[in-house]
Design goal:
- A hairpin with a 6-residue loop joins strand 1 and strand 2.
- This protein is of the alpha+beta class.
- The chain has two domains: 306 residues, Zn peptidases (Aminopeptidase, 3-Layer(aba) Sandwich), CATH 3.40.630.10; 122 residues, Alpha-Beta Plaits (2-Layer Sandwich).
- It is built from ten helices and 24 strands.
- The strands form six sheets. Strands 3, 4, 5, 6, 10, 11, 12, 19, 20 and 21 form a ten-stranded mixed beta sheet that branches. The chain has a four-stranded antiparallel beta sheet with strand order 7-8-23-22, with no helix packed on it. Strands 15-17-13-18 form a four-stranded antiparallel beta sheet, covered by helices on one side.
- It binds zinc ion.
- The site of zinc ion (ZN) has 7 residues, from loops.
- Zinc ion binds next to loops.
- It comes from Ravibacter arvi.
- InterPro entries: Bact_exopeptidase_dim_dom, Peptidase_M20, Peptidase_M20_dimer, Peptidase_M20A.
- This is M20/M25/M40 family metallo-hydrolase.
- Keywords: Hydrolase, Metal-binding.
């Protein structure tokens, strides 16, 4: 998902919440920070090694910009992230890690070993963009602004990840926990979080804590996952001439009934409780105005922060599909019954951790330390998977300012972008422990 469009203007920098379409953002909230975490972050930031690391981030800025541009110019359409994955892997390798591999689904996984290695902390950004093959991804410059599809979402995250790794290495910082730097595939659309799903399903290493970089600015903290279920439904029948074969069951008529049954009941269902939404986004099929179609299909998207509400809406949808099938078959005058094919094309589970969770507190304390107003929000990001499994996870911004995510006019501006890298590292070091 990762539209970076919810903008909350504070002193500076700008906050963006990933995964929230313009005007449809879940309510964002201020978050209270406990003193213990304020102290922890300011102690960390005052450490001489961390100060050195921050200086390195500044020194690295021209290189970070080059990395950002060169990664953006490697297309990474949905399901075709390999070329970018290979480039990102070699950049991580050059920056210096202990082990590096591409996993079976195409994620880039780089391990920077900790001194005890008793815990594993993952920080990831996603490799894929929403743009199809053939999209012009050449970066254009307009004053200080970089323009290209994918420049913000999430190529900035990849560049920040690299810069963070380099700064850690240059300052020779050791962590207690192992840190995995990961470039994930399949975050967007029909990718259906397949990269992060695999990461949390693999058995090579357990993950104790997860930080996703997605979105820009530094104040936004996603600690609640908007779950979604998506279906492609197709009614299938023999099809025939509109006059000559009149009386055959008509797939379009069934589809129209299904949408009507569903939306009537869904409309009532979502009137109360946690925000729960539905949208039939695409319909199609048919060959001619004077032909009974042999196929009629739709694609629907349903979302909620609440797993129970999502399951409830899902049941309403599946009932409507069956009811419409029966209704259309019962009025046919001749021919075979229609059949229906229901295919789940998206399943992003919901879940959340409270604002009092140490990881959320650390992200909030870090954002505040760096001059932003921390705000918690619900969204659909790579955090959905760990949050659903009860594993602490936040999605935070990677710095700078951006707009036009998922559009050809996407842009990114290095307005205090360094703060995003500092932010990631402070949260990461708090989670992984600074080893002495
Ligand atoms: Zn994204």
């Amino acid at each position: 998902m990762s539209l970076l469009q919810k903008v909350v203007r504070v002193a500076a920098p700008v906050l963006f919440f990933p995964g929230i379409a313009n005007g449809q953002q879940a309510p964002a909230g201020r978050i209270g920070i406990q003193k213990e975490y304020v102290n922890e972050i300011s102690r960390l930031a005052g450490d001489p090694l961390v100060k050195k690391m921050f200086t390195e981030i500044t020194r690295l800025e021209p290189e970070t910009r080059r990395d950002h541009i060169s990664l953006t110019e490697i297309p990474a359409p949905p399901f075709k992230e390999t070329e970018r994955a290979k480039a990102f892997a070699s950049m991580l390798g050059a920056a210096g890690v202990d082990t590096l591999w591409l996993d079976p689904v195409g994620n880039v996984v780089a391990l920077r070993r900790g001194t005890s290695g008793k815990r594993n902390v993952v920080v990831d950004a996603h490799l894929d963009t929403v743009f199809p093959e053939g999209t012009d991804v050449k970066v254009k410059f307009s004053g200080d602004t970089l323009k290209a599809p994918g420049i913000g979402d999430d190529t900035r995250g990849l560049a920040a990840l690299l810069a963070g790794l380099k700064a850690l290495n240059r300052a020779a910082i050791k962590t207690d926990a192992n840190v995995y730097f990961v470039g994930t595939v399949g975050e967007e659309g029909l990718g259906d979080l397949r990269g992060i799903k695999h990461l949390f399903a693999q058995k090579t290493f357990p993950i104790h804590s997860h930080i996703a970089l997605d979105g820009v600015g530094i104040g936004g903290i996603v600690n609640s996952a908007v779950g979604s279920i998506r279906y492609r439904v197709a009614y299938l029948g023999p099809g025939g001439h509109s006059y000559g074969a009149f009386g055959l069951a008509n797939p379009h008529h069934a589809l129209a009934k299904a949408i009507a049954y569903f939306t009537d009941e869904a409309n009532e269902f979502v009137k109360s409780g946690v925000k729960t939404t539905y949208n039939v986004g695409m319909i199609g099929g048919g060959t001619s105005v004077n032909a009974i179609p042999f196929e009629s299909w739709l694609e629907v998207d349903m979302r909620s922060e609440s797993p129970e509400r999502l399951a409830g809406l899902d049941a309403i949808f599946r009932n409507a599909v069956e009811k419409a099938l029966k209704a259309e078959n019962s009025v046919k005058r001749m021919g075979e019954d229609l059949t229906v094919k229901l295919e789940k094309v998206g399943d992003r589970p919901s879940g959340s951790i409270p604002g009092t969770n140490p990881l959320v507190q650390r992200a909030a304390a870090s954002a505040a330390h760096l001059g932003a107003v921390p705000m918690v929000a619900a969204s659909s990001t790579n955090s959905n998977i760990p949050l659903n499994q009860g594993i602490p996870s936040v999605t935070i911004g990677s710095g700078g300012k951006a707009g036009g995510a998922h559009s050809l006019d996407e842009w990114w501006l290095n307005e205090n972008g360094e703060a995003g890298i500092q932010h990631m590292l402070l949260v990461l070091l708090a989670e992984a422990g600074l080893a002495k």
